[in-house]
Each structure stands twice: as structure tokens, then as C-alpha cells.
Known about the structure:
alpha/beta, Rossmann fold, 2 domains, about 35% helix, about 20% strand
Amino acid sequence: MAVSFRNILVPVDFSVNTETAVARALALAPPEGCTIHLLHIHRIGAGHFLGRIRQFFKGISWKQINTSIRRAELKLIELKHLIEKQAENVQVQVEVLHGRPVEDVIIRKAIDLKADLVVLGKQSQHTALPQLNTVVPSHIAQAAGVPVLTAKPGARNNTLQTVVMPVSNRFPTNKLALIGALRQACQLQIQLVIFADHDTDRPFPRQSLLAIFKILKGQAGGKVNYVVLHGPNKAKALLDYSRSVEADMVLVDPGTETSIMGWSNRHLSDMLPPHSKTMVLAVR
Length: 284
């Protein structure tokens, strides 16, 4: 399966998250160009009729709502012009949508656009957008069937060099396709990971690791190594290893390789500090 990031969705909140997400989207834009879709999800005035009535009684008038929406639209247009001035091969589309929860709006938009990639900026260790614990990248990747890249401010201008990729019980066709797309832009050091506790007791992961190793070694664009990790929680072991090798990106399955044991509603990227250069790319 060939992958090219020609259609990129970037949810924006006009904070440092937006700066980070836009920078990473531009870094992944192919030489032949792409379309970046800037999406701002406006929550004032959103929701069902009773919700709007409650907002009215809180002192939020329709005029204030319309003014706020227009302000967001003008900010998006300004950001569009800045991006297109910076990257001549990139076209930018902008849209303001209403909706709750925010995560569902992003999922619907990614599906409607048939996006090749969703890029989320994440400043805090809680959420990709200001609404606390409402946007979980792995949920978006699973529901929309679209790769989701999550980046902290520390990764804004970082050069992509080292990618950590776990190998589990399924042949990672989509992961390999993404590696191919990333290698078109830069030389990569690929660190394949297999988990010792139970995966090595099954024949498939070992065979899969060997096959993947040969495939990646046969491609141009960098080096390939592999390592066996130990620990009862894959995501925790993967996080610790990624820190030890100073990984620039971790390529994970959103269902089995992103959940941190003992924390509810937590994505692997939630455990990384804001200054971390490590990005998390979740692909189903």
C-alpha cells in the first residue's frame, strides 16, 4: 500500500499547539505538494437546543457567538496566508465547525476528507486541545481509520531521524507503508521492537520481525536494528525504550500499543513532557 501525505487535517486552537501541528504537517508535505485542512472547532453555540438556551442564560448572546465565530474565521484565513506564503507547494483550506465532543467532530471530518493524516499539537500532558481529556489520538486513529500524528512543542522543528516501531502479532502493512512515505523525505534509523514476555513465545512475532527486518534493510533510506523489550505493560516498556534511544517518533498500533496501564483515557503521548521531541504516530 503506497502512502503519500497529500491530504492532511490539522485541528487548530490558535495556541502553541497550532504552531507545533502546522510545523509538523509542513515537514511531512511531499515535494509534489499537498492540501492542509485547518479545522477550528467552535464550542460556543454548539450542541443541542437546550445547550444553547443554557449558554444564553449564562449571558452569551447570539451576537457574541457570531462575533466569536467570525474572529476564528479571520484567524484561520490569516494562518492560511502565512502557510501558503511559506510553502508554495501547499494549498490550505479552512473551516470552522460546531460540535461536541471535539473528538467526534475531528473523526467525522477526517472521514469526510478521506484524510491521509491527522496532525495534533499537544502542549500539556492531558489533551491535544484545551478541552481536558476529550481528544485521545488513539481513538481518532481507530474510529477514522486514519494515521494520527501527535507532537509536543519540543518536536516543532526537530529533524526526524530515529523511528521506533513495535512488531506484534499482526503483520504491520500500514506501518511499513508509513515508513516508506517517511523515508522519501529523509534518512531514517529504524529501531524494531519485539516484546519478550509473551510475544516471543509465539512463532508469528519472531517470523514477522525477520520478514520486516529484511524488507526494511532492502529499502533505501537508512539503517535498521531490532531489540527485545521486557515488562508487563507494552506501552510503558516502549516509552522507556524510546526515551533511552532519544527517538524522534514512535510508530504504534492505536489499540494495543498506546494504553498506559493504571491510567484511564491516556494516550502514549500523554506521558511525554511538553519539551519532548518524540512524536507518536498511531496507525490502525
